[in-house]
Write a structure and sequence with these properties.
22-stranded mixed β-sheet, 428 residues
Length: 428
Amino acid sequence: MQIRSKWLVGFGLAATSVIAAWVAAVCWLPSDKELAIWLAAEASERLGVELTIGSVHWELLPEPVIVVIDFRTQQLQPVVIQHIKAYPGLRMLLDRKLLFERVDIDTAVFPRNSVRALQMRPGAKEDDVGDGVPLEHLMFRNLTWISYSGIPLAYDGEIDFAPHWRPRRAELRRPGITPAFTLTLTREAEADRWQTRIQIGGGTAHGKAELKTAANGAMQLSGHLTPQDIEVASTLASFSRRSPVAGHGAGQTTFVADGHSLAELTRSLHTHTVFSVNGATLLRFDLNEAIRTAGTSHHGQTGLQALSGVMDTQNGDEGTRVTLTDIKARTGKFSAAGKATVYHGQVEASGKLNLLEGAISVPFSVSGPVVKPNISVAPGFLAGAAIGTAVLPGIGTVIGARVGSSVGEIFHSGTQQPVAPSKGAVQR
């Protein structure tokens, strides 16, 4: 009986302590209005821009949570978060430190240019949370990223953080996309190395990433990926871009980025990919039709026996520049080689169409908007092609074109003549 009485007394004391702590918390915690003002001031200080919050309220049971509705920055294109649930530790909430165990974001819009304008000033130091981290888990749903060119892309994802904001595990997904796109990072123990697994376009691009940090805080991110069996057209379509080519790509990719922050790493990212495409098809260009009509018509498709090249991408303050070099394609008796650059919705390309293993070649160039570029060929091509078609249909077109091109180079000092614009190209 004595033991039972002691147990009841102990239980009563514990219950009383919990109730007292809860009452103290209720009395100490700010009102919804005070919390909204405090959060807006703290966020404005950290982001370097004014912002507004539609409403805020907090709850203690079944666990402490702060609910924020309609968070938006005061910018020309505002960063908007419709719904945030932030779960602070009770001690952190009582100390009024903006530190959370987890944060859930539901429906948000992040314009790239507006995000770049944010200052991203650091908040409380990690020393304030002992062995913990300022944020343990972040989850987001329907977060729309608007690129420099204005293309909106929605993502779902989640990140588990280790100290110094290193992700222990991270996953990024494009909801509603078929074939599925997922990117998963898994940290190797406590090292700044991550296993990278990507599913995209029905294929994969697995690899590794490593982050090195110098004594002055400068960081370098580097790594490699191995794309395998990735369908090119559906991959670009999953990111709201049009591809000029269909087929299954494979290759080797390396990447590197330098900077003192995540934003600087992102802006400096450079990738280098050596690729080949099996079963490639030019989706909006009929080579035989172009030759038959001397370039006046080329609507249709062209199957290719081989397609390979090198692709470099370079992020910058004004979007991504894509450079293709050493492009080689072959179909039937024809082959082509060239290079191209795509930037700010414009394409600049040049190359040669070859016959008889290069014994006969016709230079060409492409320039202008990627949605409707101008195709140009060497002087005399049209006249030569017309003569060749009349004398010897088919192959005579190419021979005549080459003869006409040579004559044109002699008498017209290399001036180029435009051909009818194409109707389709990669959209970036």
